[in-house]
Each structure stands twice: as structure tokens, then as C-alpha cells.
Amino acid sequence: MEKQDWLIVYLSLPSAGETNLIDPIRIMKGLFLFKMEFKEKLKDFYDYSPYLYGPCSFEIYKDLIGLQMKGIVDSYSQPLYRWSYYRLTEKGQTWVKSLIKDAPTEFLERLKTIKIKVTSLSFLELLREIYKKYPEYAQNSVINFGGHL
Questions:
Q1: Exposed, middle or buried: residue 108 (CB in 10 Å: 0-12, 13-18, 19+)?
Q2: Does 146 map to a domain?
Q3: 46 and 57 in contact (C-beta within 8 Å)?
Q4: In DSSP terms, which residues pair with 77 in a beta bridge?
Q5: Which DSSP letter does residue 69 get?
Q6: How far apart are CA 59 and CA 62, in angstroms?
Q7: Which of 1, 13, 19, 38 has a CB 3.0–4.6 Å from the CB of 5, allowing a cystine?
Q8: What's the domain range around 126?
Q9: Whose CA is closest to 43, among 15, 6, 85?
Q10: 0.70 cut: is pTM over it?
């Protein structure tokens, strides 16, 4: 499967909350955790660099825009936030069914668990967990936990 396919699958999976909308931070961090767990098995996946809120792959933003242009993903602005939230369209829901059939069960189950986890944590809790496990990705962060991870 291509990295963009994993992004589509990730968007289709259930979240901890009632909504199927997900913000870019939780997309980014969920796919990062997925990559780190399967880095030996996932070839040609998103590359991450330390950035303002930890691990970041600007390719994901590019792919989200491309998927919007294809009608697979919708984005929704929230009045109180500067970022959009994303979800699959009906076309995306149909498209993902064939991707899930081809996805290795081990990968799919782990990705489900990761998405539930990242959507159940607050923004700061999520960053704290990632920074604790992958401190090299916290080096450029604007969030400083003062050594108290």
C-alpha cells in the first residue's frame, strides 16, 4: 500500500470521540506513531522532522489537499481554531473499503489502536507522550514541558 492509502485508511478508522472529524495534529502524530512501530516493514512512508509541535511531515498536508481535490476528503473550518478538521467523503468511504481489504491485519489493528489513543488524549497529553518516547523530535518544539515529561 502507498503512504496516501494509509492516510485514507487512518481517516476511516473510528476515533475515541463521537465525531469522525480529526485535526491535522492527530493525523500527523497518529501516522508518525504508526511509522515508528512498523518502520522496518513500511517502505516509502512519510518522512518526519522535528518541528514546532514535534514530528512533522509536510507531505501529509500536500496529500490531504490532493485528496480533497479528488473528492475523497473534506475539510471543515472551526471558528475558534486556525486549522481545519478532516474526514472522508462518501466517495472516500467507498474507496477505503478496497484499501482495507488489502491492508495487512496486523497493521490495520495497530493503526486502529493508535487512532483511538491519539484521539482520546488532549493536545498536550499527546505531545508529552510522543516527546517522552521520541525526545529527538521535541528539539524544535515551541512546547517545553520543563524537563517534566
A1: middle
A2: no
A3: yes
A4: 84
A5: H
A6: 5
A7: 1
A8: 3-137
A9: 6
A10: yes
